[in-house]
Amino acid sequence: MVNRPKEKKPAKRYYRKRVELLRLIDKIKLWPSRRGLLHGIKTVEIAGAQAKITTHCNKTFWVTDSRNSRAARWLRNKWFKGTCGDCRIPDWKLAKYSSTQFKRHYGATLQKRSEP
After folding, report:
1. CA 50 centroid distance within chain
2. Among positive and negative, which fits the CA dihedral 95, 19, 25, 76?
3. How far apart, in whole angstroms, are the C-alpha atoms of residue 50 and residue 94?
4. Could you tell me which residues are beta bridge partners of residue 89?
5. What is the pTM of this model?
6. Which whole number is the average pLDDT over 79-92?
7. Would strands 13-16 and 100-103 be described as parallel, antiparallel, or unpaired?
8. Which residues of 18-38 are buried (b: 16+ CB within 10 A; e: fewer)?
């Protein structure tokens, strides 16, 4: 019998369900496109209620902060068809995202970061 090291399951993470989109994106660094592809986020530049997002496949776009937008709902419900081939999202990040749970009355509220 061959002893193989067991792969470690990612720990479950809990976030509040109705958290703002920009805080959620800044935390998980993933973006669902309208075609259903999941992109990795390189940078998020927040400017008031909007943010300029740059993906790893060098696509840049502006996003408005909303709790019930298409992207926020898709991220919470984990709706996507596949991942972007150019962004090369690692398997550990997808496993971490799939183990994340969004609960209404339980989990981190993703407070704003304090500026240094």
Report:
1. 17
2. positive
3. 26
4. none
5. 0.83
6. 95
7. parallel
8. ebbbbbbbbebbbbbbeeebb
